[in-house]
Design a protein that fits this description.
The structure holds two protein chains of two kinds. Chain A is 66% helix and 7% strand. Chain A is mostly helical. In chain A, strand 2 and strand 3 form a beta hairpin. In chain A, helix 1 (13-39) runs antiparallel to helix 2 and helix 3 packs across helix 4. Chain A is flat and about 60 Å long. By secondary structure, chain B is mainly alpha-helical. Chain B has 22 helices and two strands. In chain B, strand 1 and strand 2 (198-199) form a beta hairpin. In chain B, helix 9 crosses helix 19 (419-436). The longest helix of chain B has 34 residues, at 113-146. The chains are: A mainly alpha, B mainly alpha. Chains A and B meet through helix 1, strand 3, helix 2, helix 3 and helix 4 of A and helix 8, helix 9, helix 18, helix 19 and helix 20 of B.
Chain lengths: 169, 509
């Protein structure tokens, strides 16, 4: 990873490390607790439904606590940056449009949503002229359409407002 | 039993396998699979496991023997294709291609890209071929042996698989355990098959079906990789490559010189490949051994052909032999093998030692397709390198959204559920965080695939023994596997103790 010496500001690795360990700890505790409620002991007809997951959850907790301690006691002198602000902005530049795309799948279906997603991504992030964005978006979605709906006969979601209804799909 | 007679029997079965595979339709699908596989291996965010996962739903309608041929060819293509990006762009497409960049990229910088690629493809072919030959003759014996296995033996083999991840992993053991156990926990979501109770669904109807591991694979590897590449602000700057027949022949003339390195790397690859997660350490180890044993060892890293041969032989041998435990025991050695195994279950085949007896067409067809698939891959990559390199020159701002869309389509088609696309995005974020924090993803995927089977083996064993854990030491077979597993689990500690004893002894003596 190429890091510029000038912009070395961002979220510290240690903070993320601790946050993720806390999340996995919470997840492990949740798994262990619900499994305990389900019956993690020996029932009348053998081990209960929560027997195996209870130990799994407990092991997640143990692993998380070890990671947590390792992260918390790590030397703050070797301050590592998890992600620089600039880079984080780029990550969100992918993540947020992707989430909008998925929401769009519910609304107008995967083809239309994908067309606009690819076009918008190219125009805003790739700085392409709008006609190129839409050309690529249309090309890719049309190829997908041919492959799935026509050749392999796998139906993809058309959304609540099916625009393709007018062409017979 | 008569040794030569047994080998002959396997050859007959293999010939039968070829007869299953050798139809125009299957051969065509083979080339399609290889072609897609190389593309998948070349593109960032679409590795072998992910590519197979996305294309798996397309094969649901095919007969299993045909489907597995196409999917395993995607796997070969991805194994070979990783080398293209490593050599031309200094970007390892797969973790096991990292060692190939050490000498491959310098060769490309010196204008010897064609040589490097030819050497790499030929070495890949050699490694894979040796591993396939090993599978042909060893897998039936292993499966035969495993027919005697009961639930305790199976659980101990699962246990061994997971322990060797912890003991041999490069990452911190606590992180490997967390990652693996999250996989097991996700596998437990849904209806418990034994008691019929709902587990970990928290009242969400979307979770009744449980988590499909294909969604996890597509999210963790696909979306996670895209996020990582985007963060690094990837701009591809690659060397151009043309492979002419003259370069190929010239390279082939020089390759036999490295037979010693190739053989050593092949043994390392086959050996480590059978253990889970073996391809990456195998490629590094082979590179290291070649560097130490070679006459030009000190020139490694400056563009030595031998430095390309060693890791490529090893990672393909390892990647191929990872299929041995999958075929013979139903236990995958790599995430991609896990996805193929998931495919078996979807096509209605029960993976495991019985497969050899019950589905000989399928098993031997698969093994035969490994031979043919590797030849097909070699031909295709040697002739189409400029095309594949051109794919990499497509700007990332076009590739990224297209890959996200393809991943979304793949996630949806697994079980026609729109909620799976959301899960895929969530897994993508998890994959990004885990990768950056050095949590390994392979154990999570394997645990998610094997979770149900491991759990039922454990439960049945516990029922047999009335909850007594000593059943895992009740006879020599299960006892030695469990013992081996514990040894693998505590290997880092054991190695440290041995290391300390060695350093202490000279000072006290």
């Amino acid at each position: 990873m190429a890091q510029h010496a000038t912009s070395r500001r961002g979220i510290s690795s240690r903070a993320v490390e601790i946050a993720v360990a806390l999340l996995t700890l919470a997840f492990g505790a949740l798994v262990a607790y619900t499994s305990y409620q389900l019956g993690s002991t020996w029932g009348p007809d053998g081990p209960g439904a929560g027997y195996f997951p209870f130990y799994i959850g407990s092991l997640i907790c143990v692993g998380s606590i070890v990671t947590l301690i390792q992260a918390a006691t790590s030397h703050p002198a070797g301050k590592r940056i998890f992600v620089e602000w600039d880079a984080l902005r780029r990550v969100f530049a992918v993540l947020v449009p992707a989430a909008i795309f998925v929401a769009g799948v519910y609304l107008v279906g995967i083809y239309v949503s994908a067309l606009f997603y690819i076009a918008a991504f190219m125009i805003w992030i790739g700085k392409y002229p709008w006609y190129k964005g839409f050309a690529v978006g249309f090309g890719v979605t049309f190829a997908l359409f041919l492959m799935f709906e026509v050749w392999f006969l796998v139906l993809l979601p058309k959304g609540a407002y099916n625009v393709l209804r007018f062409v017979g799909y | 039993m008569d040794e030569s007679g047994e080998a002959l029997e396997e050859l007959t079965l293999l010939m039968h396998g070829f007869s299953v595979v050798l139809s125009p339709y299957t051969l065509m699908l083979m080339f399609v699979g290889v072609f897609l596989g190389v593309i998948v291996g070349v593109l960032p965010g679409l590795g072998g496991a992910n590519g197979v996962a996305i294309l798996l739903p397309l094969t649901f309608a095919m007969p299993p023997a045909t489907a597995i041929v196409m999917l395993s060819c995607i796997y070969w293509g991805a194994l070979f294709g990783g080398a293209i990006t490593s050599i031309l762009f200094n970007i390892p497409g797969e973790p096991w291609s990292v060692a190939t960049t050490f000498d491959g990229y310098p060769m490309a910088q010196q204008g010897r890209a064609g040589e490097a690629l030819t050497a790499s493809f030929t070495s890949s072919f050699f490694g894979a071929l040796c591993a396939v030959i090993m599978i042909t003759f060893i897998a039936p014996a292993v499966a035969n042996f495993a027919l005697e296995f009961g639930p305790p033996e199976f659980f101990s083999v699962y246990f061994l698989t997971f322990c060797s991840f912890i003991g041999m992993g490069r990452e911190k053991p606590a992180k490997i355990i967390v990652s693996m156990m999250i996989g097991f926990a996700l596998a437990a979501v849904g209806i418990d098959i034994v008691t019929g109770q709902l587990r970990l669904t928290f009242g969400f109807t979307e979770l009744l079906r449980g988590f499909n591991f294909l969604i996890a694979v597509i999210g963790l590897f696909g979306i996670g990789e895209i996020l990582l590449s985007m963060e690094e602000g990837l701009a591809f700057t690659g060397k151009s490559a043309k492979i002419s027949l003259r370069v190929v022949l010239e390279t082939w003339r020089r390759l036999p010189r490295f037979w010693g390195t190739a053989l050593r790397s092949m043994v390392i690859g086959c050996w480590l490949g059978v253990t889970p997660g073996g391809a990456t350490p195998a490629s590094f180890m082979a590179y290291g051994v070649a560097k130490r044993t070679s006459r030009d060892g000190d020139k490694f890293g400056t563009g030595q052909m031998e430095g390309v041969v060693a890791p490529e032989v090893a990672n393909n041998a390892a990647g191929t032999s990872a299929l041995l435990p999958m075929i013979a025991l139903g236990i995958p050695g790599s995430p991609t093998a896990a996805v193929l195994l998931g495919g078996l279950m979807i096509w209605g085949l029960q993976p495991g030692p019985l497969l050899f007896k019950e589905q000989p067409d399928f098993v031997w067809g698969l093994i035969a397709s490994m031979y043919l698939g590797n030849i097909a891959t070699l031909i295709l990559v040697l002739t189409c390198v400029p095309f594949f390199a051109a794919i990499l020159r497509i700007p990332f701002s076009i590739i990224a959204p297209v890959i996200v869309v393809i991943c979304a389509v793949g996630a949806y088609t697994v079980s026609n559920a729109q909620s799976d696309i959301w899960f895929m995005l969530v897994f993508g974020v998890v994959g990004y965080l885990f990768k950056k924090l050095d949590y390994p993803l392979a154990p999570l995927v394997l645990a998610l695939v094997l979770g149900d089977m491991a759990e039922s083996a454990f439960r049945q064993s516990m029922l047999m023994a009335q909850g007594d854990l000593r059943i895992f030491f009740s006879n020599w077979l299960v006892g030695s596997i469990t013992g081996l597993a514990l040894f693998a689990l505590f290997w880092p500690l054991i190695a440290r103790v041995i290391g300390r004893l060695r350093t202490v002894r000279p000072s006290t003596a």
